[in-house]
Design goal:
heterodimer; A: about 450 residues; alpha/beta; 6-stranded parallel β-sheet; 23 helices; B: about 240 residues
Chain lengths: ~450, ~240
């Protein structure tokens, strides 16, 4: 099977009940977002402020990165830099070897997913346990997250029940959410106790005081950070905000945009290591400077990974996160993915109707639809396109600029045979739809016959 | 008398001539001098949205528009997506004044002519689909995502139509799934979106659906016909031009 978005989503949609449920579940998050945004009187000003703060911070990124590093070192953090995914992975491997770490508890970090850290650590002989409930579910199933905030949203509770029955030995057929959550909690407590180190992602890095801020609803990042002697925070270089005051704008927006909560249950500021603890911050580039180079695409680095663009996207809701075959799915994923592998991800900017709903929920006002449009222009010139598409577009472009040919062809299309062809299976339009009847007269013909004579 | 250049997009010319006729008639009714831009067949939006903006620029699609624009007070189009494409892509770089002359037809009727000058009668129940490019691209209304006071040029105009029972179905501003070449390249999702839209319209027991773009309506009509659902599609100008 061809692994592109169209084929994968076609497969997803085959189960219509599941698709409808998936659509409704994500729409519910969008609905809750609307309620939360509606209760925030300065919502649109907040979005504008967030967008401007990000723009400012990115424009001055080198300075803020140096300020952050200096502050963090002053606080006693161990700061390191990674150019790409493989450097992240080897840095962490070395940290673990130096400190005799054998097992690690991780709290959600899309960045470590992006870098393929889990499979790398497993290959190197470490035991890695994801501790966010959703992330743990997909890890047990050997799947990728299908959403960046609700990673197991493609699964129903019955499927989770089966997975837990297999791996955590819960009762067969029991899919009561409270029962399953309790079972996961019990199992995870054991992992937390046994692990030697903790890894967290980072939502925001505060340049002014060198702290990293991690937002979770489950408190799992905190259990790891507060109980381990070796702690690693992995942070993309675009995560910086200038200071605490600016941070407040983003903490007001993040959870509201994501799921409609006023704020995440835990917003933890990690500033200084406890005594006897080694706490590392790894600043990761991994293509971010590539994205930075183009002033239009630079806005994509504004992203605070709230997932609102996925929840609102009518395509994402009906095709599932896995159909995007990239770590980050949905509109923002389709903007980022081509930077990582243009050939493999060249279908993704086309997996959108450019409806623009994502632009308007985005808390940092990224012009997602505009960037998808821009990618389309780049992709058709830099990669091979399906020959049928290329031929059809070129023929169309020629025809629609030539009145003589246009009139000939369109006169011809009034013939019965063309009408029949356009309504037949040969026309791909008719898969799931019917082509309209050609009216007897085009507008032009009507105009010629009626208006010109007046 | 305002001098209007009427651009009729290719698919309206070929498949929905009634929308073209209603546009012309309505513009004349409100007192404009209407010049049908007969030589401009297409704005190139289908190609540009598929990633071939450069191709249509190389073929000089912009030239015909640029040639006529100085002679007109306004260049009006009964399509939100074509207007959006003209202003933001094909004719990008126009001065604000020149760009301000390129208007989608409901935008023109609302902002230049004024809703109070619409005199129509259409005693039917009609469901509204809010086409994306007009809505979010041209700000014909405040979309459900934005936390600004509710406002809709489309509804302001339709409110002027005598006898009209306008219904706004649930998720009326969610995309119908057309999306140009998306409709064919991503057929499964496109059709599913159309079917979901159909269900929201059926819930309202409305036998007519209207929008600012015939392309959305063509897709929806295709889905209705396939499912043997009797809902008629009408471009908004056909309703604004209707006489009782």
């Amino acid at each position: 099977m061809k692994v592109d978005h169209a084929a994968l989503s076609k497969e997803f949609i085959k189960d219509e009940t599941q698709t409808d449920w998936h659509n409704a579940t994500l729409w519910f998050l969008r609905y809750k977002r609307d309620l939360a945004a509606g209760k925030t009187s300065d919502w649109e000003q907040l979005r504008e402020a967030a967008s401007q703060i990000k723009k400012h911070t990115l424009t001055n990124l080198p300075n803020y990165l140096e300020e952050f590093e200096a502050q963090a070192i002053k606080n006693g953090m161990l700061v390191d830099w990674a150019w790409d995914a493989s450097e992240v992975n080897s840095l962490i491997t070395n940290i673990f070897r130096e400190n005799g770490v054998k097992s690690v508890v991780k709290s959600k970090s899309m960045l470590t997913e992006e870098c393929g850290l889990n499979p790398h650590l497993e290959r190197e002989g470490f035991n890695v346990v994801d501790t966010d409930l959703g992330e743990r579910i997909v890890q047990l199933r050997k799947e990728m997250p299908s959403h960046i905030v609700v990673p197991a949203v493609h699964l129903r509770k019955e499927q989770v029940g089966d997975t837990f029955n297999e791996f955590l030995h819960t009762e067969k057929g029991n899919s009561d959410p409270i029962y399953l959550a309790q079972a996961a909690r019990t199992a995870l407590r054991k992992e937390f106790v046994e692990a030697d180190a903790a890894i967290t992602g980072v939502n925001f890095g505060v340049a002014g005081n060198g702290s990293v801020v991690v937002c979770t609803n489950e408190g799992n990042a905190d259990i790891g950070v507060h109980s381990k002697k070796v702690v690693v925070h992995v942070m993309g270089i675009e995560k910086l905000v200038p200071g605490i005051k600016e941070l407040g704008v983003f903490t007001r927006l993040l959870a509201r945009s994501a799921v409609g909560q006023p704020i995440t249950i835990y917003t933890s500021h990690y500033k200084k290591p406890r005594s006897g603890t080694k706490e590392y911050v790894i600043l990761v580039n991994n293509k971010r400077t590539e994205i930075f180079k183009d002033p239009d695409f630079r806005d994509a680095l504004n992203c605070i990974r709230c997932g609102a663009c996925m929840n609102t996207c009518p395509v994402y809701r009906r095709s599932g996160g896995h159909s995007y075959h990239h770590t980050v799915p949905g509109p923002i994923g389709s903007v980022l993915a081509p930077f990582y592998d243009l050939e493999k991800n060249k279908d993704l900017p086309f997996a959108s109707t450019l409806c623009g709903s994502c632009n308007q929920v985005c808390p940092v006002k990224i012009d997602l639809a505009g960037l998808l449009y821009k990618w389309r222009q780049i992709i058709t010139s830099e990669t091979k396109q399906p020959p049928t598409k290329e031929i059809a577009i070129r023929a169309g472009a020629k025809l629609l600029k030539n009145s003589w040919a246009y009139n000939k062809v369109t006169d011809f299309s009034r013939l019965k045979i063309i009408g029949m062809l356009s309504k037949s299976k040969l026309n791909p339009w008719n898969d799931g739809r019917e082509f309209p009847d050609f009216p007897k007269q085009s507008f032009r013909d009507w105009y010629k016959n009626n208006k010109n004579e007046q | 008398m305002l001098k209007i250049g009427l651009f009729i997009p290719c698919y309206i010319d070929q498949l929905y001539p009634e929308a073209g006729k209603a546009s012309m008639s309505l513009l004349e009714k409100v007192g404009c001098e209407v010049i049908f831009l007969e030589d401009i067949l297409c704005c190139g939006q289908p190609m540009a949205n598929s990633g071939y903006l450069k191709l249509i620029q190389d073929k000089g699609y912009q030239k015909d528009f640029l040639d006529v624009l100085p002679e007109l007070d306004f260049l009006v189009t009964p399509s939100g997506s074509c207007t959006y494409h003209l202003k933001n892509h094909l004719l990008k770089g126009l001065s604000a004044e020149e760009s301000g002359k390129v208007l989608e037809i409901t935008e023109f009727l609302h902002d230049v002519i004024g809703p109070e000058n619409i005199h129509a009668e259409f005693p039917h129940k009609v469901a509204l689909h809010q086409s994306c490019h007009g809505l979010r691209g041209l700000n014909l209304a405040v979309s459900s995502e934005l936390q600004f006071p509710k406002f809709s040029k489309i509804e302001n105009l339709l409110k002027r139509v005598k006898g009209l029972d306008l219904v706004i179905p649930e998720n009326s501003d969610e995309c119908c799934g057309f999306g140009g070449s998306f409709a064919v390249m991503e057929n499964a999702v496109s059709v599913k979106m159309g079917e979901d839209k159909m269900m929201t319209i059926l819930k309202e027991n409305s036998s007519i659906v209207t929008a600012t773009d015939s392309s959305c309506l063509m897709h929806l009509q295709g889905v209705f016909d396939k499912n043997e659902v009797e809902i008629k599609v009408m471009h908004i100008v056909e309703i604004l031009n209707a006489e009782g």
